[in-house]
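Researcher: I'd like a candidate sequence for this fold, 529 residues long. If you have to choose between options at a position, lean toward the conservative one.
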């Protein structure tokens, strides 16, 4: 959706939201519902940020950033009445299948227990208790995602109460589970998963979910935390949370924009903010690149923290300690995206029709993942990359001309700044991915009619996310919850009066979840932070 609708005035507004990514749109809806006058200004000529559908080859459309919806809470979708605004699913409860070059594929999840049992009866027996245990942890942790983090070291009763609630929630797990959660939460995914299971394909698939979108290998400390963060978000969705919006992720964003407009907000695309304006010591609005100034009492930025503070605001309005913290934020992405236009449906070895429409993982063991990560440490793309592959046209044929298909793959790990430079690295990285795919789907190369390879540097350019990072900044202990993105801006409010963060930079980070946007609106409306 690219129109400015309804026609925006020049203000003044109560609130201007910078960026019409999904979080900006969710935030705008809740503010408008609360009676605030709201304008959303988006640099791109369409809404959605990294949740967008666009054509990458004539007649072939794809979700150009995020391609699977699995973290937006059902209750949020319902509260925003997205179905009334045209949102629908092409498919729900998508299966996950782990691929290996030298063994049959392994379906992952409860539906794959029989297949797992044939490979390892021990793992089949351990799988359900493991899933249930992590599921209990995820449920206990979910309310943290859906609330404003407390501040450290204050005398406020609100903050104290939040800490008490957190402690109490963990306590409700009971002694055994509580100890186990505290034991594993700081661990790495490699150790946890290899303690529990012996089947490399299963280990690789579980490890993949811990590292997807991060700058970590499975042996990195904190990867159980990233896994639990993902599971916590998914616990508010459905038992099999992976879904594909009809029309791609852009259709979800279009529905979110309609919900915002229905609530009374205005949305302007093609309106890049050049500067957040300050008078005295508080925000008074924004200046667009076109030179237009728009007034507002409050600005909420869904651009990432580095962009917001260092580029749009300017360091002279911030103290040096805060600037240093923002400058040191780790936000170099390692996830790239490959889109292929295919003249026929691909045949992945051993993959049946149902699995082909789901999520195919090429991460056949934890060591494979770790080795794939190793290359990126030295500024090189993985020679054997780990891939999350989807064929969106299986469930949504309208995304391509009749009989044609689209393949969408997330590629771990492609460095943001390769030591050889992108001129030399791009063809090498693409070749590594195509060779890996060909190994699992012989003949696939011959069916490719067009391709697009988006490196983290391309993602940064296209979506305006610093480092092209999935989470707008690493999701790690030092950039998590009460200190996300940095102390001083971790409750959505920032050191500058009237300026808030409302995108994935803030808690609980990235993924198409909508909670950072909703929490930011709550923080403003409660005046709590
Ligand atoms: C390759 C890749 C694959 C992914 N796959 C998945 C997936 O399958 N499932 C999933 O759940 N998540 C996925 N993610 C993560 C997810 O896409 C992001 O975490 C999420 O889109 C962040 O949403 P946001 O609204 O906070 O920010 P964004 O989507 O980044 O939106 C921010 C918006 O702000 C705008 N903006 C920035 N600067 C300005 C300015 N100066 N003026 C005006 N506007 C501005 C941008 O144009 C953009 O529209 C993926 C991410 C990547 C990079």
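Model: Candidate sequence:
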């Amino acid at each position: 959706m690219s129109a400015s609708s309804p026609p925006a005035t020049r203000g003044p507004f109560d609130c201007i939201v910078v960026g019409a990514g999904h979080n900006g749109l969710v935030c705008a809806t809740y503010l408008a519902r609360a009676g605030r006058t709201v304008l959303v200004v988006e640099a791109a000529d369409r809404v959605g940020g990294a949740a967008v559908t666009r054509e990458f080859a004539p007649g072939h459309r794809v979700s150009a950033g995020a391609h699977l919806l699995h973290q937006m809470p059902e209750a949020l979708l319902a509260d925003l009445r997205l179905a009334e605004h045209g949102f629908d699913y092409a498919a729900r409860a998508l299966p996950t299948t782990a691929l290996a070059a030298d063994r049959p594929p392994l379906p992952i999840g409860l539906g794959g227990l029989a297949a797992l049992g044939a490979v390892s009866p021990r793992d089949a027996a351990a799988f359900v208790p493991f899933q249930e245990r992590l599921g209990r942890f995820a449920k206990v942790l979910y309310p943290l995602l859906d609330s404003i983090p407390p501040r450290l070291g204050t005398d406020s009763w609100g903050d104290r109460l939040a800490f008490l609630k957190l402690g109490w929630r963990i306590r409700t797990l009971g002694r055994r589970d509580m100890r186990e959660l505290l034991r594993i939460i700081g661990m790495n995914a490699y150790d946890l998963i290899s303690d529990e299971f012996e089947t490399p394909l299963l280990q690789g698939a579980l490890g993949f979910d811990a590292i997807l979108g991060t700058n970590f290998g499975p042996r990195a400390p904190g990867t159980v935390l990233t896994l639990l963060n993902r599971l916590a978000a998914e616990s508010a969705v459905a038992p099999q949370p992976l879904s594909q919006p009809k029309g791609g992720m852009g259709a979800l964003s279009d529905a979110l924009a309609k919900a915002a407009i229905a609530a009374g907000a205005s949305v302007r695309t093609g309106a890049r903010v050049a500067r957040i304006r300050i008078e005295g010591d508080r925000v008074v609005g924004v200046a667009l690149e076109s030179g237009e100034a728009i007034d507002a009492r409050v600005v909420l930025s869904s651009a990432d923290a580095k962009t917001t503070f260092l580029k749009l605001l300017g360091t002279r309005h911030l103290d040096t300690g805060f600037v240093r913290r923002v400058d040191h934020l780790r936000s170099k992405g390692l996830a790239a995206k490959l889109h292929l236009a295919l003249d026929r449906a691909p045949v992945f070895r051993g993959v049946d029709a149902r699995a082909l429409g789901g999520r195919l993982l090429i991460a056949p063991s934890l060591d494979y993942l770790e080795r794939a990560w190793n290359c990126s440490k030295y500024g090189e793309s993985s020679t054997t990359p780990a891939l999350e592959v989807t064929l969106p046209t299986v469930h949504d044929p309208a995304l391509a001309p009749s009989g044609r298909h689209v393949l969408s793959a997330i590629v771990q790990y492609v460095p943001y700044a390769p030591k050889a430079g992108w001129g030399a690295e791009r063809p090498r990285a693409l070749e590594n991915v195509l060779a890996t795919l060909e190994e699992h789907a012989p003949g696939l190369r011959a069916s490719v009619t067009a391709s697009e390879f988006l490196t983290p540097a391309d993602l940064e350019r296209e979506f305006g996310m610093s480092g092209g990072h999935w989470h707008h900044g690493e999701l790690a202990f030092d950039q998590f919850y009460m200190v996300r993105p940095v102390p001083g801006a971790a409750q959505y409010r920032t050191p500058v009066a009237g300026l808030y963060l409302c995108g994935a930079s803030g808690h609980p980070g990235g993924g198409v979840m909508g909670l950072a946007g909703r929490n930011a609106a709550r923080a403003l409306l409660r005046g709590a932070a």
